[in-house]
Amino acid sequence: MGPSYRVPFRRRREGKTNYRRRLRLLLSRKPRVVVRRSNKYLKIQLVSADKHGDNTLVAVMSSELSHYGYEGGKNNCPCAYLTGLLFGKRALEADFTEGVLDIGRYTPAHGSNVYAALKGALDSGMRIPFDQGVFPPEERISGEHIAAYTEDPSIINMVRAIKEKIIKEVGEEKGEEKKKEAQAE
Questions:
Q1: CA 138 to chain centre
Q2: How is the beta sheet containing 53-61 ordered, strand by strand?
Q3: Most exposed among 1, 14, 25, 37, judged by the fewest C-beta atoms under 10 Å?
Q4: By the 8 A CB rule, do 159 and 62 touch?
Q5: Confidence class of residue 179 from pLDDT cuts 50, 70 and 90?
Q6: Non-local CB neighbours of 145 within 8 Å, separated by 6+ positions
Q7: Partners of 42 in the beta sheet?
Q8: Domain coordinates of the chain in residue numbers?
Q9: How much is the pLDDT for 124?
């Protein structure tokens, strides 16, 4: 006779994957908007499932915001929002308009940076199911709490300027691509 118990999958034993939640996300047949945090950065990916494994379609890290002139911390609420906005614009540019939020093993805390990133993706024009009560207050997204703590109001203007720059720059890139396609025809 063999053992009377079943050993869980390795990723479940390590606490990395909740297979019941993953199955529910995969059954939606929509790409997953995967938001992951580290101690220093935030990463957002658009991932589609395949029988051979997951495929990453679009990926953005908060460290990329330094190219747009962002000088603050890379794992705070305004940065999460701007990263989500950049992610949404790149996803739309690659013709992906919808997804399902996947926060992994994180505890879903209302007003957290994960939901700030979701708000950024929604503001860019993506369609992702959500509950209105989970988003952080607008003061946190704009960086007012950081400006009050550091006594430096320029942070609010920096966040606003980078938001406008992301919206404008990604729109210009798409316009240039359409012009090149029209010239090629």
A1: 18
A2: 53-61, 42-50, 32-37, 100-102
A3: 1
A4: no
A5: very low
A6: 77, 139
A7: 37
A8: 12-177
A9: 92
Name the β-bridge partners of 152.
none
Is 60 exceeded by the pLDDT of residue 182?
no
Predicted confidence (pLDDT) per residue in 48-82, tens digit: 988 888 889 999 999 999 999 998 889 999 999 99
- Tens digits of per-residue pLDDT, 94-113? 999 999 998 887 888 899 99
Report helix, strand or coil for 16: coil
Residue 47 contacts residue 55 (beta carbons within 8 Å): yes
Q: State the Cα–Cα distance between residues 29 and 184, nearest whole angstrom.
A: 35
- Kindly indicate the confidence band of residue 170, based on its pLDDT and cuts at 50, 70 and 90: low
Question: Which residues are CB-neighbours of 32 under 8 A, at least 6 positions away?
Answer: 25, 46, 47, 48, 49, 99, 100, 101, 102
CATH number given to 12-177: 3.30.420.100
Residue 39 CA to its chain's centroid (Å): 16
CA distance readout (Å), 183 to 83, 91, 170, 177, 179 = 33, 24, 20, 10, 6
Q: Which residues pair with 53 in a beta bridge?
A: 50
| β-strands 100-102, 32-37 pairing | parallel
